[in-house]
Amino acid sequence: MKIVLCLKEILDPDIIEFDINKNSLTSAPAILNFPDFHALEEALRIREKYGGEIKAVSVATQQAEGGLRKALIYGADRAVRGWDPLLEKADTWVVSSALQNIIEKENFDLILCGCKSKDTAGQFMGAALASRLNLPLVTGVVGIDIEKNNSCIVHKKLEKGKRETYSLMLPAVLTLDESIAKPRYVAMFSRIYNQGIHKNIEVIELNPEKIDHDPLIERLYICQAKPRIKVGKKVSGLSMMSLMKVLRGETEGKKELFSGSALEGAEKISEKIEEWY
Amino acid sequence: MMKLSAMEQAVFWILLLVGLIFFVKRIYFLYKSVMKGEEDDNTDIPEKRLITAARDVLLQLCNFKTVSAGDLAGIGHAVIFWGFLCFSINYIIFMFIGDGLGFPLRESAAAHCFLYLVDVAGAFVLLAVIWALYRRYIAKETRLERNMEAGAILIIIFILISFHFIIEGISINTEAEPFKTPLAGICAAIFTSSGLSVIQQNNFLHAIWWAHYLVLIGFMVYIPYSKHLHIIASPFNIFFRLSRSSGELRYPDIDKTEGFGAFKVEGFTRKQLLNTYSCTECGRCDINCPAFLSGKSLSPRKILAGVKYDLLKSEPGRIPSGFAITPAHDPEAVLSCTTCGACIEVCPVLNRPMDLIIEIRRGLVYEGIFDENQQDILRRTFDYDNPYALTPNSKDSLLEIMGLEKAVAGEKYDILYWLGCSAYFDERTRDIVRAVSKILKKLNLRFAALGEKEKCCGDFVRRAGDEGLFQQLAKDNIKAINKINFDILLTHCPHGYNTFKNEYSQFDAHLKVMHYSEFIANKLSQGALAVNKTDTQIIYHDPCYLGRHNGIYDFPRNLLNHVTASVAEFEKCKNKSFCCGAGGAHMWKHEEPGTRMNDNRMEQACATGVNTVATACPFCLAMLEESLLVKGLVPEIRIKDIAELVDEAIC
After folding, report:
1. Chain B environment of A240 (Cβ under 8 Å)
2. For residue B143, which phi and psi values (nearest 5 degrees)?
3. ipTM of the assembly?
C-alpha cells in the first residue's frame, strides 16, 4: 500500500491572536495541522497492518517544513517538499495544482489528507486534488478497511453520529476526520525519532508553467473574532473536589423532585418559581 | 586433625582445583556480564569507600538498619554472617592447610582459642538457620519465597555445620591428646555412648570428613549460580555505593549516545547490574512497596531477578541480547511504580530497584512502548509544556487573579516563587499559594513568580522515562530562571524541589532552592512570625520526595510544633512513609488494577483517629482529599497543607 500523505503546517491556533493595532495576526509557533496529524497516525496504522510505504508531501517553504520533519520522526518513509515563489499568496485551488505536480511523479494507491486545516478551515484541498487527479473522493472518513482486490471500504461520519459506508477502487483521495485515530507519542531521541531526524526531505523544483495559477477565490481581509457570550459554569478553574461534585450533579443549585400527575407537578413548579422570584 | 594418606591428599587437592575452576569460570562470566553495562560515577575516593564498605559489611551495619520490632531477621543474618566468617577461616587454616597439607596446626593456644570460638559460633549458626527455616517454611513470613533454592542454601549450611560438629566430636574420641570444645564434646560423648569401637568411629570419621568436604566444594561451586551469590557481590555493591541522593536519577547523555535507558541489558549501568547479583531476594522491597501492597503486579524483587535473568541468559547462543521479555519488562508492572523510593530505603545491600525500574521505563519510551494514559500526558506535556494542557496566557492571567507579581529581568527579588503546574491548574493547590504568599507578605519579602515562562519542572517526565523531553524542559527552565535576579528559589511542591535541588545540577545550574517547610520553619524558630498555638491534634504525612529522597523530616514537624501542641505520627512515618500514589506520573494516570494507594493511606490516617491530616505536597493533598471524597470515610477529617495551618495560626 503506497500512501501519499498531504500535510500542512499552521500557526498554533491556541496561541495565535488577532492584533488590533496592526490589524493582523500575531506570530505563533508553527505546528502540524491537527487533522493532518491524525491522518499521519492513520497512515502509520495502515502501514503497520498492510505494509507499504508512506510519503509525506507538502507545498511549503523551507521555513515551513517542520510538518514534514514531524512526519519523518513519526515514521513516514519519505518526505517531499515542493515550492515556487509564485505560490506565496495562492489559494487552495492553486496549491492543489502544485500538489498535483508533486504527486503525479509518485507511485501511489491512496492519498490521505486531513479533512480541514485549523487555520483557514477550507475543507477543500482533498476535493480539489481529487478533481485535478480525476480520482474518487470521500470526505470526513472515520474508518478505512483495505480490501484485497485493489479496493477499499471507507466509513464516513454524518451528523448525529450516523455512519455511511462506501466501497471504492484505489487509487483514491480520502480526507480524514480527526476522530479516525488518536496520534501516538514519539519521544525525543527515541529509536524511531532518531531514524526520522536524519532522513532527508526531498525538495522538488516546481515548474511554474505547469501550475495552474488562476485562483478561484481571493482573500480580502482578516478581522477580529466576534465577542462570544459565555454561558454555563466555568470548570477549568475548579479544584478536583468541586469538579467531582459538578460531575456528579452536586452543584450549588437546589434540586427538588416532585411526584404526582403532570398537572400537580406543573402547579408545584409554578409555585416554586413564584416563590423564588 | 584428620590424617590423610598421600593418595587422599592428591584427591583432595584435585577436587579443590576442579571446584575452583568451575567457581572462577563462573565468577569471570559474571564479571564479564556486569562489565557490559554503562559506566557510572561511583569510583571516586577508593580508600574511603573501602573503609566504609569494610565497616558496613563486617559490622553488618547495612543489615542492622533494616532491623525493627516487627522484623528481627537481620539479627539472624548477622549471626550466620559472623559464624560463617569464623568457619571460612577455620576451613582455610585447619582444613586446607592443616588436613590437606598435613601441618599440625591445632596444638597452639591461639588455635585452641579459635576452635573454641568456631564451636560457639557454630552453635549460634545452627540456631539461626533453624530460626530461618522456621520463619520461611513454618511461620510462612510473607516477604519470603518458599522455593527450592532458599531451602537448599539453608540446609547446606546446616549440614556443613553439623558435619563439622560430628567430625570434631569423633576426633576427640580417636585422638590421643584431644582438645575438647563444648559442643564437639557433647558429640563425642554421644559417640562414646553409642558403643562404636574406635576403629569403627575412625572409619565413620573418614566417611563424614569426605562428605563434608564434598558438600563444601559443591557449595562453593553452587554459590555463584544461586541467589547466594550475594555473599560475593554485595560487599562490592556496598563498595561501589552511589553518592547521589535517591531523588537524583542518572544523567544519560542523549546527544552523544545512541538511545537511552535499558532497551537492552547493556543500557543498565554496571552498578545496577551488580545490584541484581547482590539481591538475595529477602523481599523487604516488596513488603514496603506501595504498589505491591496495593495489589499491583509490580514486585521490585522480581524486577531485579528478571534483569539478572536477562543479563545472564543473553550470552551468544542463548536468548539474543536485547529486549527479552521477562517479568522485568512487563510494562504494566514497571509503570505502576510511583518512584517513592521505599525499596531503596529498606534494601540491606544498598540496591536501588527504583533506578532499574526507571531505566526500564526509559527503555520502553525509547522503543515507543506506552501505556495509553502515559502517552497522553507525555504528549500534552510535549505540546503545552505542562501536563494539564494550560496555555501560556492562562498562566499569566492566573498571576493576576492571585495578585502575584510577575518576575521580570532587571529587578531584584528576595524570593522567586515557583508555583508549579498544579497551582496553575488546581484551585485547591492555589490555597497553598495563597497561604504561602500571605506568609511571605507578612515577612515583608519581595517575591515574584515566573508566569508563562514557567514550564513543567520535568519531575514526572523524567520518571515516566522521557529523558529527551525532560532535558529540554530543564534547559528551558534554567534559561528562564537565570534571567531573574533572586536570592532563594522557593517551591511548595517537593517534586519540583527535588528536581531543582538534585537534577538541575546535571545541567550546571546550581540553584539555591528551598522548600517552604524549611523556609517557614526557620522563620518560625527565629521568631520572625508570631503564631497562636492551638491544641488540635495534627498528624503529618511525609511526602516521599521531601522525606525519603531529600531527608527533610524535621522541618515540617518543627513547623507543626509551632502551630499545635500535639503532633501525631502514622505507624508508617518518616522514612517508612507510605506513598499517596501520585509519584512517577501517577498524578495524571489511571492507577493500575488493585486497590488504590491513596485509599490505603487514608485508611491508615482514619485508624489513628486524628482529624487533621497535614502534608507538604500538592499531590499528596489532592490524592488524600480525593480518597476522602470518593470513599466518604470520615467526614470530619480535613486535609491541610502545612502552609495553610501556619496561615490559620498567624496572629
Report:
1. 426, 428, 622, 625-626
2. -75, -10
3. 0.81
